[in-house]
Structure formats: structure tokens, C-alpha cells
Amino acid sequence: MSLPTTITAMHVKDIRYPTSIQLDGSDAMHKSPDYSCCYVILETDGPLTGHGHTFTVGKGTDVVCYAADIMKKYVVGRKLDAIFNNFGQYWHEVTCDDQFRWIGPEKGVTHMATAAVMNAIWDLWAKIEGKPLWKLLVDMDAEQLVNCIDFSYIEDVLTKEEAIGILKGMDATKATREAEMRETGYPIYTTSCGWLGYSDEKITKLATEAMSQGFSRFKMKVGQDVKDDIRRAAIFRKVIGPDRIWCVDANQVWGIQQAIDWMTALAPYKPLWIEEPTSPDDILGHAAIAKALNPLGIGVATGEMCHNRVMFKQFLQAGALQFCQIDACRLGGVNEVIAVILMATKFNVPVCPHAGGVGLCELVQHYAMFDYIRCCGTLENRMTEFADHLHEHMCDPVVVRNGHYMPQKEPGFLVGMKAQSLSDYEYPVGAAWQKLFDEGVFKRDHAHENN
Ligand SMILES: C[C@H](O)[C@@H](O)CC(=O)C(=O)O
Ligand SMILES: [Mg+2]
């Protein structure tokens, strides 16, 4: 096979799945989300294509696609070697476009678009090397890996030399951990039993099934009504028993004191963490909640809406999170995610990636393996999220065995979606959407009224 040298074209698609019909993915803030993504395909002068996406929730996916489209000028016509040899510098160039950065910078729509593009480029790199992404990251020279990071604004807590030191310090033992991953996989928890819109009966049924599949870690959505939460917590504990790991997620609905009071009411059910108790931007608020809940044995988890490495740096400096939930699409792709994993390693804070979305499990499995094998070297207090939705649309869905992600062997980032799914669920023109519009199940978005 001839290896590609140049990116020759970039296509961007608005893909949406109607998950709100069953209330899959529902939480106190996002009551009926449609799991969606901005999906990027890179063509090359060889047979390989790169696929990447960024997760969104329905409306606004077109806005992210528009932003990704603007980035074409940094992608099409570029030599792959030139990108890979100076990846950190390239990432800086893309994120610092002197006009486009005004509507970011490095946050929100522009940064999510960056993630889709960067994820597609990393997919190409892994395919060229003939390895799954986790293995590419595990095998890469420390210097080469660190060369992929833009250290702007984080050098006060992590220098290039320190990052290289962390990676090299683990090299002698990494083969043992890689073998362990191949044997037993990486521990995961399931969110899919405890979405907010699910009935008590559904929670009981799904948690019972998950237990029989070997899951021993669970998460439940909270934050709409404290009495409901207490009842649902009791149901969960009754099914999973007193000792299995159980976490809760409020998706930002509370103020600071409200979060402390609500979690004090749920404390008897022994949650390991409260996730996103308040505004994702309120670093000192998270620190106050963490301080108040520490005596109850409850940690604070956050990160799925943490804009960038600079925010994570401050969360870590302020002791505002006990579980660092990197998100493969909220951050600007692999380059920034590895920077955050290395900072968390330095602060000795467990990384527990967020994966409630479409294609997120497929993305974060690589980070979990990389983190364990190459960075932190421990599984203590670590687990990655699993959400059991839409995997049937993926070309290489995650492999789950006995409550663990098993490392995959195919080359790439493994986030490609099936051609039929891309065609059926492209918004608003795909056949699946046309049918839902015709049947009156969905109305077209305001922006798409004429399609
Ligand atoms: C809207 C999403 O489903 C969100 O609830 C996911 C999430 O918070 C998680 O998986 O954690
Ligand atoms: Mg969450």
C-alpha cells in the first residue's frame, strides 16, 4: 500500500441521532439530547482516509461544522510529515488564527471544531503507522510525543523537560502494563442504567442486566428533585449492593451551597464522586464543594465541559477536582488531551475520561490505556466511562469484557462511522431524518426549515 504524503480534501458532515425519543443520554440540564457530531473525513494522495469527530447534542452541530469548514485552509494541501514533525507548533498555528480565535479562543465551538480536525489527523497518523492510537502513543519516543504538545500557558506547572521525565520514568515497566491491559483490559463504569429520564423499573432492569454482564461500577444522573434522587439512589444500592462503586452526575444544575446540601442528603448512599455539581467554569466553587464534601468521603469530578488545558491547570492547582474527566472532543484533540493527562499525573489526580456521547467511548479507550501504560502506572481510583448507545453505527465499536475495555488491534483512532449510518443520519437530508420529519416525530431546526 502506498502511504499518503498530503491531505488533498476535507469533508464535514452534520450527523445526528434521535436519542431523545428514548431519553437516552438525559440529565438534569440536557433533558432530551439528540446525540450528534460534527464528522470530518480527510482524503489523501494515498488510499487512506482520516476520520474524526466532535460530540454535540443536536442543535448547533451545524455551527460546529461551519467552524470546522473554516479550518480547511490549515488542512487541505498540507504535507503530513510537516504536521507530524512539528505537531505542537501546527496545533498552535490552527488554534491561533488571528481572526478566527476571537470567537474562542481555545474554547467552545472553535475548539470543538479543532478537536474534530485534529482527531482525524491523528487517525491518519495511526493508520499510517499501522497501530491503534493507544499503541502509537505508547510506543512513541518521549521527545516526539512531547513535541506534539503546545505548552503555551501551562509551562508554569509542566515544562517540556518534566513531561519527558514523566514518560521516560515509566518506560522500563510499560511492557508489563501493556501485557496486563491485553489480558484484563481497562476498568469501566456504566452510565447507561441511570439516565434521568428512565423510570424506576427501567433503572432496576438495566442495572440488574449490567451486573450480570460483569459491571461493578455505575453512575446515576441527579439534580432535578432531591426526593426522586434519594428514591433512585436506594433502588441502585438495592440492586448493586453496598460495596460496588456508584457515582452521581448533576450536569451543572446547582449553586455551591445547594450542591453541598443535596450531596449531604445523598451521602448515606455512598457516592464516590459528584460530577459537574455547578458551572463548569467555577473553579473556586468546585474547590469549595470539594472541601465541604471531603469529610463525607465524596470527591468532585469534572471536565466534560472544561474548555482547555489552562482551565484544567487551574482546577488542579486549586484542588478543585479529585477526578479529572478529560473529554476527547471538548479539548482540542489528542495534542491537548495528552498535555492534561501529563498535568494530572504530576498532581497525582486520577484521570477518568468522560464518554457519555456518540463515539466517545471509542475515542477515550485509547487515552485510558495510554494513561495507565505510559503516564500514571496505576489503576487506583481510575475508571473510564461506558455509555451503551449507538455503537452499532461504528465500524470498530469498543470491545467490552467483564466491565473492562479490551485494547483494540486495528490501526487508527477507530472512530469511523459506517457509510450507511453517515448517509441515513446526516442532518437534515438523511433518510432517517426525512422519515422522522414526515411522521411528525421531529420538526426541522429553524435553520433547516426549507430542507
Ligand atoms: C447529555 C449527555 O448525555 C451527558 O449527560 C453526558 C454526561 O454528563 C456523562 O456521560 O457524564
Ligand atoms: Mg457527566
Automatic annotation (TrEMBL):
Report any one BP term from Gene Ontology.
Answer: carbohydrate catabolic process
Give the keywords, sorted.
Lyase, Magnesium, Metal-binding
Which residue range or ranges hold the Mandelate racemase/muconate lactonizing enzyme C-terminal domain?
Answer: 200-296
* Top enzyme class: lyase
One GO molecular-function annotation for this sequence?
magnesium ion binding
Question: Reaction catalysed by this chain?
Answer: L-fuconate = 2-dehydro-3-deoxy-L-fuconate + H2O
Name the EC number(s). Answer: 4.2.1.68
Provide the cofactor list for this protein. Mg(2+)
This protein's superkingdom? Eukaryota
Q: Name the family the entry cites.
A: Belongs to the mandelate racemase/muconate lactonizing enzyme family. ENOSF1 subfamily.
Give the PANTHER family listed for this entry. ENOLASE SUPERFAMILY, MANDELATE RACEMASE (PTHR13794), MITOCHONDRIAL ENOLASE SUPERFAMILY MEMBER 1 (PTHR13794:SF58)
Protein name in UniProt: Mitochondrial enolase superfamily member 1
Q: Which organism is it from?
A: Dreissena polymorpha (Zebra mussel)
**Lineage per the UniProt record:** Eukaryota, Metazoa, Spiralia, Lophotrochozoa, Mollusca
